[in-house]
Amino acid sequence: MNNTDFKAVLSAIPGFSSLQFRLLKENVQARIKKKRVSHILETESYNVKCPFCSSKNFIKWGRRTDMQRYRCKSCKRTFNSLTKTPLARLQRKGHWLKYAHCLKYGFTLTKSAEICGIHISTAFRWRHRFLTNMKQIKAKKVGGVVENGHLKLKESFKGNRRIECNREYRDVFVLYGIDANNNIFDATDKSCSLDGLKEEFKSLFKLNSLMIARKGSVYYEFAKSLKIQTLDDTSNTMFKSLSGRLESYKSEFTSWIYDHFKGVATKYLENYVSWVRLLNEFKAGPSALTILYRAKSVEKYRHQPEKVKRFL
Ligand SMILES: [Zn+2]
After folding, report:
1. Which pTM does this prediction carry?
2. CA 37 to ligand 1 centroid distance, Å
3. Residue 86 to residues 44, 128, 259: CA-CA distances in angstroms?
């Protein structure tokens, strides 16, 4: 729009009716929010490279949906900073921060949809797009005194419209543990077996680890098989003082699964396990901005600034 047209719009505003003025205000606010999210996600992209061939030889290629587009000189394809991320092609960016806020506080899909003015199916799609990357953000190593446990859930087909009659619902396990530095490690498994534990956690333990495990338990067998020292005396004072952390994780997990999310489908269980792990990483929970950053990329997640509050 040229300056003359813009001035004409400004001069027309005093003649607007209350309704017209409100509509204008809402439109402008929605536009600002959308631009703000695009700006946040683009400025975070300090290390942009072509998502198709990883080349850094690219040029700017105009803007689309409020995001800078690039064209790779090597493979000739165009992209923006969200291409090939879980947030690619999602619409209504202006509501993303608000939605991340809803996720942080565990609002139901219905309430989140209502707050953000989106359809409930969109709220569901966003939830899992936002959580997809979280699965990759795991403790690389654990050490010191390590506590562990497991939770048994019944297989769930929530949301699946075609459930076979007389289907037998199997058990599903969430295996988890916490080390001396509060690093949480976890996995979902169809059994709580020695093989399952080995497959998930074999390379996780540092040499100095001391695993708390009762004699005869599968974790005890696991520790013995990897030559990890164990502490199996339940009367030990150290054991008593530590066990609170595990109980706290367990109650938080069940509270999120059953109270906030009202039960979860087994096929998405890993996403939710990752979510509880993320919650435990931050004392006051992750900010909406952190949720958004991690939804987009896991590359430098530990160094994201916590400055979302001014955007909400
Ligand atoms: Zn390329």
Report:
1. 0.76
2. 25
3. 16, 9, 26
Cα 58 to ligand 1 centre (Å): 8
Residue 63 · residue 80 · CB < 8 Å: no
Query: At 81, is the secondary structure helix, strand, or coil?
Result: coil
Separation CA 68–CA 82 (nearest Å): 10
Residue 147's beta-bridge partner residues?
A: 178
Q: In this predicted model, what pLDDT tens digit does every residue of 229-267 receive, in sequence order?
A: 888 766 566 666 566 778 888 888 898 888 888 888 888
Q: Which residues pair with 231 in a beta bridge?
A: 212
Task: Give yes or no for a contact between 197 and 213, defined as CB atoms under 8 angstroms apart.
Answer: no
- 172: three-class secondary structure by DSSP: strand
> What are residue 78's DSSP bridge partners?
71
CA 84 to ligand 1 centroid distance, Å: 12
Q: How far is CA 262 from CA 151, 272, 275, in A?
A: 17, 12, 15
Residue whose structure tokens are 């729009």: 1
Token pair for 49:
């490279």
Residue 60 Cα to ligand 1 middle (Å): 13
Q: Say if residues 148 and 187 touch (Cβ distance below 8 Å).
A: no
Q: What's the token pair of residue 23?
A: 């509509």
C-alpha 112 – ligand 1 centre gap (Å): 37
Task: Kindly give the distance from the C-alpha atom of residue 91 to the centroid of ligand 1, in angstroms, as a whole number.
Answer: 24
Better-predicted residue by pLDDT, 90 or 158? 90
- Taking the C-alpha atoms of 206, 190, 250 and 128 in order, what is their torsion angle to the nearest 10 degrees? 100
CB–CB of 269/174 below 8 Å? Answer: yes
